[in-house]
Amino acid sequence: MGKLLEVNNLSISFTQYVQGLNRHDLKVISDLSLDIGESEIVAVLGSSGSGKSLLAHTILGILPYNAHVTGDVKFNGEILDQEKKEKIRGKEICLIPQSVNFLDPLMKVSQQAVGECKDDNERKEKKIRQREVFAKYGLDESVDDLYPFELSGGMARKVLLSTALLNDPDLLIADEPTPGLDSKSVEETIQDIRKLKDQGKGVLLITHEIDVALKTADRIAIFYSGYVIEINKVENFLNSDNLLHPYTKALVDALPHNGFKLTEGVQPLEEVSGCPYYENCPISSDKCANNKPELIEHDGAMIRCFNFNKAVSEEVVDEVVSEEVVDEVVSEGPVEESVSEEIAEEVNGEEANDGA
Amino acid sequence: MIKINSKKLAKFLGLKAVRLLILLIVIAAISFIMIQLSPIDPVRAYLGQRIVSQEQLAIMGEYWGTNLSLGERVMGWLSTLASGSMGFSLIYRVPVTEVIVQKFTASLTLMVSSWIISGIFGFLLGVLAGAKEGTWIDKVIKTYCYILQSSPTFWIGLVLLMVFSVYLGWFPIGLSVPIGQLSDTVTFWQWLHRLILPAFTLSIVGIASLTMYTRDKLISVKKSDYFLFAQARGESFWGIIKNHGIRNILIPAITIQFMSFNELFGGTILVEQVFAYPGIGQATVAAGLRSDVPLLLGIVIISTIFVFAGNLIADIIYQYVDPRLRGEDDD
Prior knowledge:
The complex is a heterodimer. Chain A is α/β, with parallel strands linked by helices. Chain A has two domains: 3-224, P-loop containing nucleotide triphosphate hydrolases (Rossmann fold, 3-Layer(aba) Sandwich), CATH 3.40.50; 310-356, no CATH class. Chain A contains 13 helices and twelve strands. In chain A, the strands form two sheets. An eight-stranded mixed beta sheet of chain A has the order 6-7-8-3-9-10-12-11, sandwiched between helices. A four-stranded antiparallel beta sheet of chain A has the order 2-1-4-5, with helices on one face. Chain B is built from 14 helices and no strands. Chains A and B meet through helix 2 of A and helix 9 and helix 10 of B.
């Protein structure tokens, strides 16, 4: 089966001016590679505000002008340049945005779902299609004439989803579809996304909620300090022994139902010369300090580590953690998440909303 | 399309009417007191250059009530005003109301035409500059606005007058009708010909602030999430500007344009002076220079109502056209 979407060695950096005229390149995504097949859900899991959304923006060609992108994105085997991205976005690749803020506050939702039309015929056809899709998600006709601010949380989510599905795309990109939703709505969102997979569509799910990723995805790509350090099947996340990277293991072990084993340390904010996890890694060797591991294939998974074979046999060192931290972890996820938010705020104002 | 809650609107307008009444009383009283405290002597102003004896002066003063206390005079003025009379203009020798109606109508054509021109062009330039932010078009428009914003209206009027009337000779130098012609016999084209330059002067000054405001609003729309999402949905750039940009900036821009009535009125006074256009602006200056107290006070009151009306319309648009505010009940 051919791959629907392939991202190869994608790096994104921003040029910014710090203290007057000193130019500074801030790398947000480094050497990211992943692929999505038909009827497959791949989750990109990383801390909030770490720049995951930029992956979606790159695929759709809506990055801000000061972003530098290297690497390539292929869709159905064809390399996407800006022109091609502009042609297929909204048609073959659609975005499911994270909140109602992505809808024009002064336009009725049905009008927005229909979008731009060349002539009246196209408008009529799209209007009929819009009604069908809305009806499928249980939105009755009275919803058509509502403005975004009049929608309830659940309705808004369904409107956003219907909007993305109106043109029957092959690939959907769900950018943080669940923040701030109650558990019932989260459950519904997960079901809705899984249904898309049953219809043969590929889904790229970008999230910081490990729970959502585990329940929704077929494969999970772990995003750490701008690098994808491991891509593994969701089954392997049930037991940390099946995972390859020491960070991923630590992450899974830190989940409440796996015993809350926490490790210390934060994601590096600056570009490092060696492995980004070197500082905190329990299995690091001298080689890791100054050499960057490549993302390599191992047993159907992808891994970015020199010593992962060693890690399989060794235990991750546990740390004793005080009770306050544990409380925080229950709601926030792993400790490492908090610091990296600052990176994104510096880079891109809109990213700062991600975690909220 | 626009559903208006008529009960709410009635309540709103009622409150506004009360506010206007209070405002008018206060303005009328304060401006009257200020003139009373100024060195202007209405009796002397009325007599002009005529020479009269002290006794005659005292009789006149008594007849006009200048020997009464300030409080009595203020009450007298307010009660006469309440009966609908604004007094008798000293320089035009007709009731103030008549002068104002005549002069204001002349100015209104000037103000309305320049208000519409500046509204349309200001908005379009703002949209263009905002959409093309950072390009040379944007820079040209921005520079143009800064220059206009920082130069005084009368100076721009003088420059235009020099270029178009003196050097090029395209337009007459002043007056609203040709010299030596009765106003009844003036053709529409003659009238329009003389309106163009003053209206143009008045509008280019108004363009600058509206353009900068519109540009700024559009840039913030361009940074919004819904703009990004519209792009992600494959809508074209100008399509998004048209469908989402203008939709979101039109209401604030119209509001700003209505709020600018005070600048419009101030600008008219200067422009009419430069172009010798016989409107309310010239009447104001004449009333001030020649101590025509009743006319001056009358104009103050009329201009208050005019500016208040502009703000009121802006308020109504904001509260009743925007769907986000329209539906809410203020209990």
